[in-house]
Design a protein that fits this description.
Helices cover 72% and strands 0% of the residues. With 179 residues, it is an all-alpha fold. It is elongated and about 110 Å long. The N and C termini lie far apart (112 Å).
């Protein structure tokens, strides 16, 4: 009986010793620094400009203008500002998408808007963490700027594209010349 009590005592001591060891490893984790509102950290991606034709066709589209101004402010912002305004970004992208004119409702534009939604959503997930990491937020902000540049490229290409009616007319002229 004494041997049985001895084995149980040794087992309990081993188990409690293991628990103390795991607690000590958890305490060695490095604390994550809080976001600093005075940080001078910024992303280094240059935002593209619209072509003059695209600028002219989008000058009255207020939702796009709001989105462009906000993306430009995020491009020059520190992680604290980006973290604070992720909800506004998501709302601006949704408003822009809802109010697209029919000539902008193309697959290429829709896919770029979906990419903006995705990058905005990832940024929002990072911002919602209890202790957001400034490096991860700035990396997500860089991806957002790249997605915005992709949208600008598509808008520029769309403004330079030949309208279908003109294209059909040119094809008819070529057919009549060949005959």
């Amino acid at each position: 009986m004494r041997i049985f009590v001895f084995f149980i005592t040794v087992t309990i001591l081993l188990c409690t010793g293991c628990n103390n060891e795991t607690v000590s490893t958890e305490q060695k984790t490095e604390p994550i620094a809080k976001l600093d509102s005075l940080s001078k950290e910024k992303i280094k991606i240059e935002l593209l400009e619209l072509s003059p034709e695209a600028e002219k066709s989008l000058e009255d589209f207020e939702d796009f203008q709001n989105l462009r101004v906000f993306i430009k402010s995020l491009n020059t912002a520190n992680p604290f500002f980006v973290n604070q305004h992720t909800d506004s970004l998501d709302l601006l992208i949704m408003t822009f998408e809802e109010n697209l004119s029919t000539d902008l409702k193309k697959n290429t534009i829709s896919s770029r808007i979906n990419l903006l939604h995705t990058e905005s959503g990832l940024l929002k997930l990072l911002a919602e963490k209890k202790h957001p990491d400034s490096k991860k937020i700035m990396a997500a902000n860089s991806k957002l700027a790249i997605a915005y540049n992709s949208l600008i490229i598509q808008l520029n290409e769309l403004s330079l594209a030949i309208p279908e009616s003109i294209e059909k007319e040119l094809l008819r002229e070529l057919e009549t010349e060949e005959e």
